[in-house]
Amino acid sequence: MTPPPDDLSGFSMLDLFRAEVETHATTLEQGLVDLDEGSQEGAVIEPLMRAAHSLKGAARIVGLDAVVGLAHAMEDLLVLAQKGELVLGAGAVDALLAGTDVLRKTGDLQEGETDAFFAEHQAEIDEIVAKLVAAEKGELEPPAPAPTSSTSTSTSTSTSTSTSTSTSTPESASESATPSEPSDTPTSSPAPSPQAPAAPQPSSPRSLASAVRVDP
Q1: What is the pLDDT of residues 67-121, one digit of tens each?
Q2: What residues contact 35, with CB distance under 8 A and at least 6 apart?
Q3: Residue 126, Cα to own-chain centre: how many angstroms?
Q4: Which residues, in sequence order, are CB contacts of 54 under 8 Å at separation 6+?
Q5: pTM beyond cutoff 0.85
Q6: Cβ burial, residue 79 (10 Å; 0-12/13-18/19+)
Q7: pLDDT tens digits along 24-56
């Protein structure tokens, strides 16, 4: 980082603005890396807030209104974080880094280049400012992922299957225990098989003798 010279008489206002960007953009870049690693103490955030505030003032002096709006949105978000009113998530830090990158580019502008630069980058700047404002409202960070429905569906299916099984078991037992009703169709008895005629029994000699009587 190059310190600003002591004698500023030979420098234009744009030269002074570029010196301010070099100083404060470096502070923002280094501090935002620390934030991204999880350290969000007030002592870490306060220098970033002051850097954004200084860039806002420097841009206003040289008439760079787009830079004023961008630095102001960055400052507002950092003030809330410094007060502990919000935690800077990954999305908010990314937006701050994107804003710092644009500020760094404005520090490279030469006389007569500002109009063309902002005509090309105004949409990008507006998008970054919108993200910073959304971060202030807590609307930038993605919501926590909802639990997948496959587990609940599987549980529901298992519960349904268990319920179906427990419900059908008594019915099956009841059906098996219910005696079958007699059929209305008469059951035909098998026809008796014809009996073979009994064979004649031979008369014994004694019977014949008693049957034939001889008169004396």
Answers
A1: 999 999 999 999 999 998 988 988 999 999 999 999 999 999 888 898 999 999 9
A2: 44, 45, 48, 88, 93, 96
A3: 28
A4: 20, 24
A5: no
A6: middle
A7: 999 999 999 887 666 687 888 999 999 999 999
